[in-house]
Amino acid sequence: MRKAKENTVGETLKFMLKTVRREKPSVFFLYLLAFVTDFAAKMSAIILPKFLIDELVLIIGGEPLENHLSRIIIYAALIVGIALSTNLLLNLEAQLMSVRSEWFNQYFETELSRHTMAMDFEHTEDPEALDKLSKAKDGMSWYSGGAIGILTQLYTVISNAAILLSVSFLIIITCPWLIPVQLISLVLITIFNAKNNKIEAEGFMQLSKMNRVWGYVFYQLSDFRYGKDIRLYNSADMMCEKADTISEQQVAVWKGQQREMRPNNMLINTINALRDGMSYFYIGFLAVTKAITIGDFQMCINSASNLYWSLYHIVTSVQELHKRCSYAHRYLEFTAYPAAMVKGNKPVKDGEHTIEFSHVSFKYPRSDNYVLRDVNITIRSGEHLSVVGLNGAGKTTFIKLLCRLYDVTEGEILVDGVNIKEYSEEEYRRLFAVVFQDFQLFAFSLRENIALADTPDDERIEEVLKQSGFYDDAHKLEHGLNTTLFKSFDEKGTELSGGQQQKTAISRALYRNAPVVILDEPTAALDPVAEYEIYRQFNSLVGGKTAIYISHRLSSCKFCDRIAVFADDTIKEYGTHDELADKPGGIYAEMFSAQAQYYVNCTE
Ligand code: ADP
Questions:
Q1: Structurally, how many domains does the chain consist of?
Q2: Do 493 and 569 lie in a common domain?
Q3: CA–CA distance, 281 with 213 (Å, rounded to integer)
Q4: What pLDDT, on the 0 to 100 scale, is given for residue 232?
């Protein structure tokens, strides 16, 4: 247990030092500057007044002023000059450091987003991974203060150790008994501080989930895209109530923390008062008995206070360092989140591709129920397959497995006879252009939404816009392909209609020019006849490519080569439309006759 904690601090510190050295080494120079300045300021404030006071005492004792005046002026000028200049330098250093601190906060946020986007898809639907992400975000920013927040604690330990050594030397030669008084009070205070830290750390664990829900209500739901549902279902009040409940829970945790910490804080204050009283009594006694000069008295008081505060800062900074490192370690844990999938490196060969599901069974991570069992199907190159079945039959899951967003639980998926796990992930994914039911458009330009990672080629974009039937509408937009979708970043951004959004998503799939095209019910919101039209058009656009159409309606089936009917967690029926439509007691036959009324005109 102890070892694990040491590693947490060690690993985090090593990571921070390496990151700062790589990204902004000037931070180390600023710490060095602060160290020298701070040391000079503190030591001169302890030592110089002693000489000044001793000169003044001699004058009060009857010595002529002119014998001491020049020294008094020099000491006074030094005290004021050093205090002023070190203050200025420390202020400047603090400003420069705070700029770097902000820079690192943004740097880590960007890195975290980059990592989140690159991690295996299954983690993005995993509550544990989402919780870890939230802890990583909070841990790195608010709670640890990021790179500068952590390194400043390390700096505080080092700079205070230098002060501690220097004042200990001064105390040992003038008032040695101060050392045990300060040490005992510090040990006691450390114990009560440690108790407070533990209470705070427990609060962090409790608050992390609450912060995530609160953040969801306030940040994500303020997104324009949720606007319609929130207004039409009058759900704003419900959302705010939810946020209020969480706020109340947060406040209750904070209040509980304060209540628990109160007795510790009272004891800390009492110990402080006792220590100061005893120190003054002891040093005063030395001065009255003339064992030390009045200047020494002043220096001892100053040294005692510096001894205590430097020890205090060392101990609290070590505790704080430990605490901050364990918060920031959440970031390291998240970025090292184990990959869910085996990554292969085989290249995908060019040309035609055959897809085969061989005895594939699947259950979602953390679920005991199989969503698919013993699925067997072969999809030949250029084949158009229609996947039908009721809601929840496993159609989308089938596609997620094919696209390797999840790995099969049992069995294997082969493409050109090779298990898909052996392929390079990036190359494998390039085989597919998918329009999911819940496809996402981004608040970027229309051009960027269509080309995404591919290099935008306006001629081809125009071509796919024509193919998807969005060309005329797109050209009516004020800024054409440069029009920003949604209003999140651009006042002049446009809100596309549902149909236009679907056409944009379909254009994106066509632009990708992948050998396998998949439509996963992106048309679910349309009426059956319009849906049929889209599938028909799309089918002719896809041409000789392999195509998989999913629908719980049968609009796509008529012009597909094969139909796979998903029911009871598997492919229950498989064949051509003609084979399945007349099968007595068949699921497809039943679905088809139930829906036939919609298609009478279309299929004629
Ligand atoms: P369909 O596309 O046929 O409507 P899905 O493949 O979306 O069906 O879902 C099949 C089953 O898997 C459903 O019972 C659904 O609740 C479940 N399911 C879907 N996604 C997840 C997930 N990420 N985690 C757990 N269960 C899921």
A1: 3
A2: no
A3: 56
A4: 66
